[in-house]
Request: fold
Amino acid sequence: MKKIILSADSTCDLGDELKEKYQVHYYPFHIILEGQDYQDNVDITPEDIFQRYYKKKALPKTAAINVGEYVEYFRPFVEQGYEVIHLNLGSALSSAHQNCMLAARELEGVYPVDSGNLSTGIGHLVLDAGEMIKAGLGAEEIAEKLKERKFRVHSSFILDTLKFMSAGGRCSNVMALGANLLNIKPCIEVNNQDGSMDVGKKYRGSLKKVLPLYVKDKLQEYGEISRDKIFITHSGIEQEYIELVRRTIQEEMEFQNIYVTRASCTISCHCGPNTLGILFETKE
Reply:
């Protein structure tokens, strides 16, 4: 059986520790800001993006990895005799998966997987794949299992502000202004079929009030939640809110691992600072 390379778009947001533990290879998305092309979390950070917006009202555009980039990225692995499992950002959000599929046609033993998700929603599947590799499953079998497993991943986020959504054309200025005036913090929910996003429950009040309510609602929404891991992923938020969410999770449910990670530029530039979500899986 060939050795397997585990790989993902940079949008999986696992953080250095988990990336190293599971030997995950990343390929970065493009961040286009004021005419310059940056690589996500390589030569630009979410803080850079936020500061540029506050100083100049400049917001970046994000661009998917193209076919040629994927081919050149995968080729050395294939030439060294590896098979590759690569998890993409949800197909409703980006052309990355389509491009990855086209690249895979040119190289034998590359298995792209549409995660149907974003951020550590993808990250869940990456870690699941890592465990399957350890268990000795083959690349093609793992890829097929992940395509079924993605429907068990549940991802959502609380947005502190709609300014960045509005500036990026993803909601109206009127909606953003109304949310700000009424102190409304919407829950953005990810459709695990394709990665598209919908607005769920709208909470009202401070983050200190809203975040525990959100966590309790989400953990009570599903009957059979897998207890091996849960992610708290944020775009940059004060530690007190992270600890508040961690405590609320622990009060509601016992997990073997509560991972805290920072969202990539691709995710952060659309949702703005002080965004936080919990991401978990349900059982079969």
